[in-house]
Amino acid sequence: MKKNKPKYKQIIDAAVEVIAENGYHSSQVSKIAKKAGVADGTIYLYFKNKEDILVSLFQNKMGQFIEKIEQETTSRQNAEEKLLTLIETHFEQLSLDHHLAIVTQLELRQSNKELRLKINDVLKRYLAVIDQIVAEGVEENLFRKQLDARLVRQMIFGTLDETVTNWVMKDQRYNLTSQAKEVHSMIVHGLST
Amino acid sequence: MKKNKPKYKQIIDAAVEVIAENGYHSSQVSKIAKKAGVADGTIYLYFKNKEDILVSLFQNKMGQFIEKIEQETTSRQNAEEKLLTLIETHFEQLSLDHHLAIVTQLELRQSNKELRLKINDVLKRYLAVIDQIVAEGVEENLFRKQLDARLVRQMIFGTLDETVTNWVMKDQRYNLTSQAKEVHSMIVHGLST
Amino acid sequence: MKKNKPKYKQIIDAAVEVIAENGYHSSQVSKIAKKAGVADGTIYLYFKNKEDILVSLFQNKMGQFIEKIEQETTSRQNAEEKLLTLIETHFEQLSLDHHLAIVTQLELRQSNKELRLKINDVLKRYLAVIDQIVAEGVEENLFRKQLDARLVRQMIFGTLDETVTNWVMKDQRYNLTSQAKEVHSMIVHGLST
Amino acid sequence: MKKNKPKYKQIIDAAVEVIAENGYHSSQVSKIAKKAGVADGTIYLYFKNKEDILVSLFQNKMGQFIEKIEQETTSRQNAEEKLLTLIETHFEQLSLDHHLAIVTQLELRQSNKELRLKINDVLKRYLAVIDQIVAEGVEENLFRKQLDARLVRQMIFGTLDETVTNWVMKDQRYNLTSQAKEVHSMIVHGLST
DNA sequence: TATGAATGAGTATTCATTCAT
DNA sequence: GATGAATGAATACTCATTCAT
């Protein structure tokens, strides 16, 4: 399995760095190879083409990202706490990896529609977690019954995403994680019975 | 003033059409020129370069978009109604111009960071309208005092933007405007005292 | 009509020179452009791609080649003289353009099967001239009736082609045209009643 | 002697198959190695480089081809019969090995000039057989004295080669061997006293 | 103003060959 | 002898922009 070989991870990590530092359109394959410490041709032993590096990067990093959120939230008692944990974990993880934050919030969005569709596939797992928490909240009688699942999902994800993007565009100059509580408060109010 | 000459508008309208139909990366200057019925070189009499077409396009279209929202909202009595009007007008306008919706929600986001910063500048006027309504809501004692203006702005804009993007990505197959009321409800709940 | 613009011919002539001097596989588009005195991109205003340069080259040069042979042969009185004229004109023309001889006999044969099929199309006009002369020879009772047209065509073209190729491979060190008479003699004998 | 080890022949046979099936330019060393059932690197224990595979292939297969022709022709009584046998054996052998026919008539000609010069070396043995038969024909007073040996050789080889190439390009759809008699007739006529 | 022919910089990918095991 | 992972050189084509007319 190629994904477990050390060079696979080396190349993905190099890609994150190179893209964060140079921007999507100035990230040539040769630059990524150099940063990864391999020959240009070696890239193609592990990835089908340049786009495959980006998709794999997103799947790999986002996979870990979502897994962490799944882990943290399941241990909580109720929907309200779970939602807070989700927001905090979301913010925390991106705060801890500045390069990744730049890549996911800014650079990867410059990719073409096709790549963005693949990225959306990966995000579905995240949206499922949100749906699950909201459903629990409804059962716990914390949230209103009549909520439209899609709209709720869009509000939560849209708010978090916009918040992180603004923070990245302001060069990550303020503390993102500390905003989790207030974002949580607004969302819970918005959904409450 | 070049902006009032007919070819200026011709070129911008051609750009919207071409980008909506072909996607950002397949929208060459020559294609836009052809659709606009002018020679390639003529483009450069009206715009500094290709990026300038896109920025101008966004300024022009978004200017009208925001103006309309300003007009509609000022005539309303209170913050709650103004917010509903803002959401409805936002959704309505993009529903009425499918090409523009594709361009603003999907294609223009593939531009580089620099262009996106300029786009953000244009959006400031829109965010100012949101801020103003929220401030009124606080004064009217409808919304909580301690709200962080930036976070509120991000929640509102993030939610609307995510909602519209999802609708565009689903090929605009359902009615967007009819979702305004529920989105409004969630946001107002989220901010209420 | 692009084919009549001066740059079209410039590029084709440059291609013949570059290919004759460097060989098919070392004839980069940029080298041809440089020799033609135009920018790389200009090539693509006149030709669809690299292969199109080669096909056009062959069509253009071979077109003239065959036309000349058609002209010279029609003025002759009988099949025997026509055949001699054909052979002489064939040899003469390639003797007069050493670069073209190298390109048609050696370099262009390295192209892929697809290109070679297109080249064969061009040759059909030449083979038709041969067929016509042979048919006349049969009518004049100079040649045997039972001859298989295809085999005759293959003998004549095969002999001429092999003769020219050998002369080119021997670096054109001897006089090709002076061999026309003897080749003619062998062929006429071969077909005679 | 490497040439007698089993892998040597394995690789050459694999090369013929791969080239016949995929064409010269799609016949990568790794594909040949796979078909031969050896590792890529193993190829280089038996051949100096890729070109060496092709030259060896031609030497090996053509060696057998010419040997067979030498055997068959020597047993015949006179030049006329020998020439017929040569033509028949030439056609027969290529008819019996369709892959080899494709490789020698079409694919190997796409190689560069250098390789073709080496291929010509191998052919000298074949041309010597032709020369010998023609000389015998002259002695037997069957053929004219004044014939130029090189031109005769070119006529015979050119005719046979063109005939086989046409048959291969027509996808070997008709019987090649049955054309031997008429080809023979034309050539003998062409050389006769 | 308007034209459109000409420019030329910039880059992903393949594949013959090597060499440590 | 045998392997196969790693190497890295080499090149056609696009398209934003210019400028002579």
From TrEMBL, chains A, B, C, D:
DNA-binding feature ranges: 28-47
Organism domain of life: Bacteria
HTH tetR-type domain boundaries: 5-65
Key word Ribonucleoprotein present: no
Transmembrane region(s): none
Swiss-Prot/TrEMBL keywords: DNA-binding, Repressor
Protein name per the record: TetR family transcriptional regulator
